[in-house]
Design brief:
It is a single chain. The protein has about 475 residues and is α/β, with parallel strands linked by helices. Among the domains are: about 50 residues, Helicase, Ruva Protein, domain 3 (Orthogonal Bundle); about 80 residues, Arc Repressor Mutant, subunit A (Orthogonal Bundle). About 45% of the residues lie in helices and about 10% in strands. β2, α2 and β3 form a beta-alpha-beta unit. α1 crosses α9, α11 crosses α12 and α11 packs across α13. Glutamic acid binds next to loops.
Length: about 475
């Protein structure tokens, strides 16, 4: 582990869709690793897939990083703004003989693969344009834009000690000459000199940005041998790699758009707290003893790259909801008030995120998984509720009705706080010889539209007096 070089990690999403949960998790690991070792964390946008990259997606990624609170020391760095650098490296490699131009047409490559399939061998580029001492190369065809290929070492073994998977080796016989640069598509804004492929740009960038540790999804394991060979060909120091297993959906299949994978920001809208998201994501592939609930600061303290899980974890919405509920209980009420006000605004209910809303959050947050559920509760303070008539009717006996009318009169004149309201309730109960539930349940149904709530004096005290009186008016 480059003990002399500082720790520098990065996350390098491609802006071809939203920041998905797997990438958010590797971003978290990369970030926490850098923070744990006092290093630096870089955000790089890998936008060389010009046809599929969008500005919308870049904004989504930046929003997600901001919401999660994964701050970066450098970036966002856009690959498409670094084309000149890739071209310069290509020139150096062509001159050094570690890369060469290949003029095969797509038809020729198809035919090559077809012939290999017929022979029952694994399809690969057969090296026909690869220069070798004494080897005649085909004549350069007219009108064909060449790609540039890497002259991958023909012999030897590529191995690395993966931070997650342990030791991995692959023979160079298994891998062919990777394309480093493709001609830019006709009419594309990209330089006429061509667009780098992922495997090439990622190596130049990780080298230039002095990345010491690369955490990424294990769908990239097959790319790593090429990348290692490229690092060697460039004389660049090798980062450590850690390939994290994919996240499975609750059906045991890979999380995908069709299988429950939604954007990170969708969880914000669904009322999750970023610290809960991070806590949950962290545990999907890493552990610290049997700690299930922790803060980001604790994670930074603990995350040293060990105890990363080798096998895939399963996305569990119920556990995420539980983790969120625990963080919700700990969350500051003024902060929750802002979040709930935003949730209510989504429903067209405009309320101030003031001390009263904060007090409401404090009273109800223990029974909620999300701020959406909190907003479900608090809506009754601001919009009319319908008392369920079928539940209410059998409870409204003459005695109860008389007590509620008496209570309404007392509430019209008493101090408007929990203690005074509690006192009014008690005296009505005593006077009308009723037990608390006989009064409290119809009272809740009338005021809140439901029979179960926190303690009724506390619930009432958070209403405007006028709302309470008007909801009791129909008695
Ligand atoms: N752009 C690649 C991706 O989004 C980055 C992979 C890597 O971290 O090297 O999968």
């Amino acid at each position: 582990m480059g003990s002399t070089s500082p720790v520098r990690t990065r996350i390098a999403p491609s802006p071809t869709g939203f920041l998905h949960l797997g990438t958010a998790r590797t971003a978290l690991y990369s970030w926490a690793y850098a923070r744990h070792f006092g290093g630096e964390f870089v955000l790089r946008i890998e936008d060389t897939d010009v046809a599929r990259s969008t500005q919308d997606s870049v904004s989504q990624i930046l929003d997600s990083m901001r919401w999660l609170g994964l701050d970066y020391d450098e970036g966002p760095i856009y690959q498409m703004q670094r084309l000149a650098r890739y071209h310069a490296v290509i020139e150096q490699m062509l001159a050094a003989g570690t890369a060469y131009r290949c003029y095969c047409t797509p038809e020729e490559l198809d035919a090559m693969r077809e012939a290999q399939r017929e022979r029952g061998v694994k399809t690969h580029y057969d090296g026909r344009w690869r220069p070798a001492p004494g080897k005649p190369l085909p004549p350069v065809p007219a009108g064909v834009q060449p790609v540039v290929r890497f002259a991958n070492p023909v012999d030897g073994i590529v191995s690395w000690d993966d931070l997650v998977k342990g030791s991995i080796s692959i023979s160079n016989h298994e891998i062919d000459d990777l394309i480093l640069l493709r001609p830019a598509a006709e009419g594309s804004a990209a330089s006429a000199l061509g667009v780098p492929t992922y495997n090439f740009a990622v190596v130049v960038d990780d080298w230039d940005m002095a990345i010491s540790h690369v955490f990424r999804g294990d769908e990239h394991i097959n790319n790593t041998p090429w990348q290692i060979n490229l690092f060697h060909a460039l004389g660049a120091p090798l980062p450590r790699f850690g390939h994290c297993p994919i996240i499975l959906g609750d059906d045991g299949q890979k999380l995908s758009k069709r299988r429950g994978a939604v954007s990170v920001t969708a969880y914000e809208q669904a009322g999750y707290l970023p610290e809960a998201m991070l806590n949950y994501l962290a545990r999907l592939g890493w552990s610290h003893g049997d700690e299930e609930l922790f803060s980001l600061a604790q994670m930074v303290d603990w995350f040293d790259g060990s105890h990363l899980a080798k096998s895939p974890a399963q996305w569990d919405p119920a556990k995420l909801a539980w983790v969120n509920a625990q963080h919700l209980k700990l969350a500051d009420d003024d902060r929750l008030a802002v979040l709930v006000a935003a949730q209510l605004a989504n429903r067209g209910v405009t309320v101030a995120a003031d001390a009263r809303l904060a007090a409401m959050c404090s009273l109800y947050k223990d029974r909620c998984n999300t701020t959406v559920e909190l907003a479900d509760w608090l809506g009754m303070y601001f919009v009319p509720v319908a008392a369920p008539a079928d539940e209410l009717a059998p409870l409204l006996t003459d005695a109860v009705r008389a007590a509620l009318v008496a209570l309404r009169d007392q509430l019209a004149g008493c101090d408007w706080d929990k203690a005074a309201i509690g006192q009014a309730l008690k005296s009505c109960l005593a006077e009308h010889r009723l037990k608390m539930p006989q009064l409290a349940i119809p009272l809740r149904l009338l005021l809140c539209g439901r029979a179960q709530t926190p303690s009724v004096d506390a619930v009432l005290a958070l209403f405007d007096r006028s709302t309470v009186l008007s909801r009791l008016q129909s008695l």
